[in-house]
């Protein structure tokens, strides 16, 4: 299954809302996870099951979608949210597959 | 807090074997229904799953790499390891180890280690 993320880079001002898209080449039900990666830190699980926040993840992060179209929304961007975000499907494996990532940068 | 750390040579010659070890601390590699996985990201490309292992030794490999892979576990050392045979420049990547849930997503990750294949 091919996972396609858009856009590749998203420029948003702090305090604004950011919406990141992830599309699957075929239906993956709700078996989708979102991760955040920042330089010098381990990747962090944000969302699993398309919409369930992982432990300790702030409520400003939300996930939605099912089937082939998914969205990660960050409601009010904080400085620490500027990072690379990538999605992963775990419905059809092997292999588990990931999107290419979206870089969220400060506008 | 569970922590994972990759270790191993950062430079490997073409056609030789890439070997990495992941040391797990803050928890036991035998606890729960978790798998332990390896992933990699070549420069400028997306993340790719390499394979996973259960503490019993059951392994699951990416079909595209299966013929060159060995993943093993050492429960006495709380470690699991990756070997990739006959490497080429295409195997140059940042390699991550991770804990994988029974559902299939990855909830804890190492920092990653860049391995370069070059003579």
Key structural traits:
heterodimer, A: 107 residues, mainly beta, seven-stranded mixed beta sheet, B: 119 residues, four-stranded antiparallel beta sheet, 50% strand
Give a description of the structure.
With 107 residues, chain A is an all-beta fold. Chain A has strands at residues 3-6, 9-12, 18-24, 32-37, 44-48, 52-53, 61-66, 69-74, 84-89, 97-98, 102-106. Chain A contains no helices and eleven strands. In chain A, the strands form two sheets. In chain A, strands 2, 4, 5, 6, 9, 10 and 11 form a seven-stranded mixed sheet that branches. Chain A is globular and about 35 Å long. The model of chain A has no long low-confidence stretch (mean pLDDT 97). In chain B, a hairpin with a 4-residue loop joins strand 7 and strand 8. Chain B is mainly beta and 119 residues long. Helix content of chain B is 0%, strand content 50%. The interface between A and B is medium-sized, with 25 and 24 residues.
């Amino acid at each position: 299954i091919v996972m396609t993320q858009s856009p590749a880079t998203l420029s948003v001002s702090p305090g604004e809302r950011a919406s990141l898209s992830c599309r699957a080449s075929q239906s993956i039900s709700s078996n989708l996870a979102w991760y955040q990666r920042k330089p010098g830190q381990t990747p962090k699980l944000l969302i699993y099951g398309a919409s369930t926040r992982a432990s300790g993840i702030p409520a400003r992060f939300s996930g939605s979608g099912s089937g082939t179209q998914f969205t990660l929304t960050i409601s009010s961007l904080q400085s620490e949210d500027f990072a690379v975000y990538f999605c992963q499907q775990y419905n059809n494996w092997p292999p588990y597959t990931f999107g290419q990532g979206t870089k969220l940068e400060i506008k | 807090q569970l922590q994972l750390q990759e270790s191993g040579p950062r430079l490997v010659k073409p056609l030789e074997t890439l070997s990495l070890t992941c040391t797990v601390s803050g928890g036991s590699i035998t606890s729960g229904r978790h798998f332990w996985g390896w992933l990699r990201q070549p420069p400028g490309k997306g993340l790719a799953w390499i394979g996973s292992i259960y503490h019993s030794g059951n392994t699951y490999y990416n079909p595209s790499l299966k013929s060159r892979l060995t993943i093993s576990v050492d429960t006495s050392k709380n470690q699991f390891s990756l070997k990739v045979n006959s490497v080429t420049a295409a195997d140059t990547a940042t390699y991550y180890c991770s804990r994988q849930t029974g559902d299939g997503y990855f909830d804890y990750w190492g920092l990653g280690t860049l391995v370069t294949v070059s003579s």
